[in-house]
Amino acid sequence: MEPHKLAPAILTRPAAVELVQRFAAAVRRVVPLRQGILFGSYAHGTPHQWSDVDVALISDAFGDAGFLNIRPFARLMWDYADIEPHTFSTKRFENEAGDPFIKTIKRTGIVVA
User: Fold this and answer.
1) Would residue 97 count as lying in a domain?
2) What CATH number does residue 45 fall under?
3) Which pairs with CB-CB distance under 8 Å and at least 24 residues apart come from 24-30?
4) 4 DSSP assignment
5) Considering Cα of 90, then 96, then 99, then 100, what sign does the dihedral take?
6) Residue 5 domain-assigned?
7) pLDDT: is 3 or 43 the higher one?
8) Phi, psi (5° rounding) for residue 85?
9) Helix (H, G, I), strand (E, B) or coil at 14
10) Residue 90 domain-assigned?
């Protein structure tokens, strides 16, 4: 598989969705995901030339330290360099407790996995 890299070309929304679906399927091989949600500029339809693809990953296996949650699938990032993963425990995501970031993801994101 050829690695995906940040490219000066803008992906179409369907291409971004398909990329996130492939990424989520790869992550699911090592982490039991509940959801994968495309959010940010690609979900809003406003990507620019250097936009990354923002993805919220929700799993019971994730804790509250997002940078540690990436460890099980860090090696996948080489093949999906244009994806910016944001991890959330299921409990934190479902009980957002006023977190504006999570509220925005829920309101504007596209569930793709």
Assistant:
1) yes
2) 3.30.460.10
3) 24/55, 24/57, 24/112, 24/113, 25/113, 26/73, 26/76, 26/79, 26/80, 27/57, 27/73, 27/76, 27/85, 28/113, 30/72, 30/73
4) B
5) positive
6) no
7) 43
8) -80, 140
9) helix
10) yes
Range of the domain at 69: 13-111
Longest dimension (CA), the chain: 41
Question: Is residue 74 predicted with pLDDT exceeding 80?
Answer: yes
pLDDT band at 68 (very low <50, low <70, confident <90, very high): confident
Q: Which of 64, 67, 86, 71 is nearest to 20 (CA)?
A: 86
**Token duo for residue 77:** 């990032």
Domains in the chain, number: 1
pLDDT reading at 65 higher than 80: no
pLDDT more than 70, % of the chain: 93
Q: How confident is the prediction for the chain on average, in pLDDT?
A: 91
Distance between start and end Cα atoms, the chain: 21
85: left (phi over 0), alpha (psi -120 to 50) or beta: beta
Q: What is the pLDDT of residue 105?
A: 97
Residue 86 lies in a domain: yes
